[in-house]
Amino acid sequence: LEEHDLHAELVIQDSRVEYLAPVRGDFTARATLPEASEFARFLRTLERRGKARIRVAVTISQGGTDVVRFEGTFAAVKT
After folding, report:
1. Fewer CB atoms inside 10 A, N or C side of the chain?
2. What is the DSSP letter of 18?
3. Angle at 46 between CA 38 and CA 41, to 5 degrees
4. Total-model pTM
5. Coil vs helix vs strand at 63
6. Is 25 strand, coil or helix?
7. CA-CA distances (angstroms) from residue 73 to 1, 27, 45, 56?
8. What is the mean pLDDT of residues 68-79?
């Protein structure tokens, strides 16, 4: 949002977490945005209506192994 000069409050509207293995130390989290066209639609909706939702997937890895999968719908409201 900062890259597009949009200021918004973000909250997690709903989420799902799948724990594949215990996380016992340092880890890496990698977020994946939807396709570019869906992200562009999210930005247009946020600009036009002042609020929008988008689904984001996150994978947490430890030692090269995926240990957690997270999917969440984030709601944005312009501030």
Report:
1. C
2. E
3. 20
4. 0.80
5. coil
6. coil
7. 16, 23, 15, 6
8. 96
